[in-house]
Design a protein that fits this description.
Largest sheet: 6 strands, mixed
Shape: globular
CATH topology: Rossmann fold
CATH class: Alpha Beta
Domain ABC transporter: 4-235
CATH superfamily: P-loop containing nucleotide triphosphate hydrolases
Bound molecules: adenosine-5'-triphosphate
Order of helices and strands: EEEHEEHEHHHEHEHEEH
Pfam family, one: ABC_tran
Radius of gyration: 17 Å
GO molecular function, one term: ATP binding
Keywords: ATP-binding, Nucleotide-binding, Transport
Low-confidence stretches: none
Strand content: 25-35%
Distance between the termini: 32 Å
Structural class: alpha/beta
Protein name: ABC transporter ATP-binding protein
Amino acid sequence: MSVLQLDAVTRIYGAGASEVRALDDVTLTVDEGDFVAIMGPSGSGKSTLLAIAGGLDQGWTGSVTVAGHPLQGLKRDALARLRRRHVGYVFQDYNLVPTLNVIENVALPLELDRTDPSWARQSARAALKRLGIADLAGRRLDQISGGQRQRVAIARAIVGDRKLVLADEPTGALDSATGDDVMQRLRLLADDGVAVVLVTHEARHAGWADRIVFLRDGRVVDSTRVANDPAVLLAGA
Ligand SMILES: Nc1ncnc2c1ncn2[C@@H]1O[C@H](COP(=O)(O)OP(=O)(O)OP(=O)(O)O)[C@@H](O)[C@H]1O
């Protein structure tokens, strides 16, 4: 089933001589269990694509569907609800809340959605377990490493069984071994049915994906299937 579907999506900033086509007639399908890496030069539209896919940007034309729900025409509140229920984000700088401990950070999207607190906790614990960090649940963020923080951010992205994870340069702040660990975690989630869209500048990381989509000047210029073999990827790490 398609978790994310973009059809003929165009995003234009400015007008007249200063017009920029940040995305130009982009069509993309990401199914359950699909891991897609988006690559392209600076300014090619990668972040714009993620923002639109995640319902964070509304000034586009075309059609976008997330988990079967069309985004066009949704009001701000409905978009926010859809985001909380279906979309998880992973950013380079983690975007965790420093005053909350690990499990509180992971439970936060569910609590914002007014989920029963004990259910939110239980779901957060399950997400931490999926990321192999159940033992960190009670730690403060300043008591864990950068790689562990990124795993916490990924746990938050999937908590409540969300099926779409959008990751924007998630390894940018990490050393290469820790970055590979994060990629491996995203791969495992995709193998488990989550749809993952990763923006990266690093071909080595894109190698963990099933497919690499290349953007240039807002257009998809190539889409390549990757024959991924984790053993080879790790050996080359
Ligand atoms: N809010 C905005 N207002 C005007 N132009 C914008 C805005 N956001 C992005 N753009 C332009 O849209 C184009 C695509 O930008 P985008 O940030 O999506 O590229 P990117 O591929 O993510 O770049 P990078 O790799 O540098 O992060 C660029 O030309 C950028 O300058």
